[in-house]
């Protein structure tokens, strides 16, 4: 959930409803606004997440609190391709971002008051099927991670 003017997910409800159709997902939407959620509570929510999904923005820095097996899914990087990829690499967790540009639709060209057109200054619609494909891929990465606590060993099978 974003409470800012730009980089809102215009079909967010549709994406969340699609996630809720997959029984293995426990979906929690959180606005990491310090006025509503204390920082320690933000850390707890993040540390108990297997897949952390957000559009480009400072909230993605919470990835440093994710468990080792987690995946950070930067829904769209707004053409700032290395920012959170590098942070995820330094943290040692798997990073994903939107792959098919033709399946993300900006509301407009973006309109920074002094810099002009820029993809960080608009809102976006995302293709639901592509979104679900990427989330399911993230779920496979999580469940395949050797430190994932719910992983079964060959002895348990």
TrEMBL record:
This is EGF domain-specific O-linked N-acetylglucosamine transferase. InterPro entries: Glyco_transf_61_cat, Glycosyltransferase_61. The keyword Signal applies. Residues 3-72 form the Glycosyltransferase 61 catalytic domain. It comes from Callorhinchus milii (Ghost shark). Its EC number is 2.4.1.255. Pfam families: Glyco_transf_61 (PF04577). The keyword Glycosyltransferase applies.
């Amino acid at each position: 959930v974003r409470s800012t003017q730009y980089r809102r997910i215009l079909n967010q409800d549709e994406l969340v409803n699609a996630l809720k159709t997959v029984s293995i997902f426990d979906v929690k939407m959180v606005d990491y606004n310090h006025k509503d959620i204390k920082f320690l509570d933000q850390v707890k929510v993040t540390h108990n997440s297997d897949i952390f999904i957000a559009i480009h923005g400072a909230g993605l820095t919470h990835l440093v609190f994710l468990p080792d097996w987690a995946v950070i899914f930067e829904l769209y990087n707004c053409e700032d391709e290395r920012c959170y990829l590098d942070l995820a690499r330094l943290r040692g967790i798997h990073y994903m971002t939107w792959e098919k540009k033709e399946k993300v639709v900006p509301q407009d060209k973006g309109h920074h008051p002094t810099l002009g057109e820029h993809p960080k200054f608009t809102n976006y619609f995302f293709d639901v099927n592509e979104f679900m494909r990427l989330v399911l891929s993230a779920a496979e990465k999580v469940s395949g991670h050797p430190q994932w606590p719910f992983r079964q060993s060959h002895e348990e099978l």
